[in-house]
Amino acid sequence: MTYTSILTEIRGRVGLVTLNRPEALNALNNILMSELTDALADFDKDAAVGAMVITGSAKAFAAGADIKEMADKSVQQMYDNDPIARYGRMRTLRKPVIAAVSGWALGGGCELAISCDMIVASETAKFGQPEITIGVIPGAGGTQRLTRALGKAIAMEMMLNNRTLSAAEALQMGLINHMVPLDAYLDVALKLAEEIASRAPRAVASAKKMINHAYEEFLAEALSDEKKEFYNLFSTADQKEGMAAFVEKRKPEWTGK
Ligand code: CAA
């Protein structure tokens, strides 16, 4: 399979996907998200693969959904194109997925990382949901998964006031599994994935399924509501202003409309 925005390879029994849009800090546009979820679905079906790793670059795991692609979209266009459905495909994978995160994991990038089963981060990783600065909210699980993982107080600060978490904070708060020096985070993630891939495949899949059952019960309805809130904000002047201001590299002026 030839991809334009990701790289794929199999190392040992681990399927590795590298997000590869360096010019946009791996912003998650429709093509990249389609390619990523197709590649993961193929690995999920491949008997030679026991676990998967998603990584980005040292500078950016991913800086969020592609703001330039969605800045001028209407509510109807968001519902018709349904970009959040691509993130939803992550939830259908039976094999474990580990995010190897370095640098920025923002917006949809943070949401992609926390929808994986485990996170190995470099010491330079930064996790955040800056959607409030462009007039919207997280649409791919951030309001739900971060609140469950971190509690209400930190979640509120992250999503209402753009607080970012360092790797050390994320480790201390239990959001990530390991914090590793920059030159080793991918190797550590691959080693963890290889170890898991060497275990009884059906039992691994069952364990993942049941842990998610405990953790993500009631999540489906909440994610659907979050998606609607996110899409409906595309009817506001502040969404148009916030995203235009990002693209034009200026400060937004909010009108509350
Ligand atoms: N979408 C589109 N392009 C992006 C992008 C994004 N999310 N993030 C970065 N880029 C682009 C920049 O526009 C820039 O492109 P140009 O060279 O053509 O100008 C390039 O990537 C490099 O970025 P910067 O020059 O901004 O790099 P920096 O080091 O100065 O700043 C940053 C890095 C703090 C991550 C900054 O790029 C940034 O704030 N990015 C946006 C983060 C954000 O708001 N993410 C949320 C998106 S909405 C979302 O994700 C919704 C959802 O829930 C699914």
Can you walk me through this structure?
- It is built from 12 helices and 10 strands.
- It has 257 residues and is α/β, with parallel strands linked by helices.
- The longest helix is centred in the N-terminal third of the chain and has 16 residues, at 30-45.
- The protein has helices at residues 30-45, 67-70, 75-81, 84-88, 108-115, 142-150, 152-161, 167-172, 185-197, 201-216, 219-232, 237-247; strands spanning 6-11, 14-19, 51-55, 60-62, 97-101, 104-106, 118-122, 126-128, 165-166, 178-180.
- Bound molecules: acetoacetyl-coenzyme A.
- Acetoacetyl-coenzyme A binds at residues 24-25, 27, 63-68, 104, 106-108, 111, 130-131, 134, 138-140, 142.
Distance between the termini: 45 Å
Helix tally equals 12
Report the strand count. Answer: 10
User: Overall pLDDT, averaged?
Assistant: 97
Instruction: Estimate the helix proportion, in percent.
Output: 40-55%
Order of strands across the biggest sheet? 1-2-3-5-7-10
Q: What would a concise description of this structure say?
A:
By secondary structure, this protein is an alpha/beta fold. The protein contains 12 helices and 10 strands.
Q: Topology, please?
A:
Blueprint: E1 6-11, E2 14-19, H1 30-45, E3 51-55, E4 60-62, H2 67-70, H3 75-81, H4 84-88, E5 97-101, E6 104-106, H5 108-115, E7 118-122, E8 126-128, H6 142-150, H7 152-161, E9 165-166, H8 167-172, E10 178-180, H9 185-197, H10 201-216, H11 219-232, H12 237-247
Parallel strand pairs: 2-3, 3-5, 4-6, 5-7, 6-8, 7-10
Antiparallel strand pairs: 1-2, 8-9
Helix pairs in contact: 6-7
This protein binds acetoacetyl-coenzyme A (CAA).
Acetoacetyl-coenzyme A (CAA) binds at residues 24-25, 27, 63-68, 104, 106-108, 111, 130-131, 134, 138-140, 142.
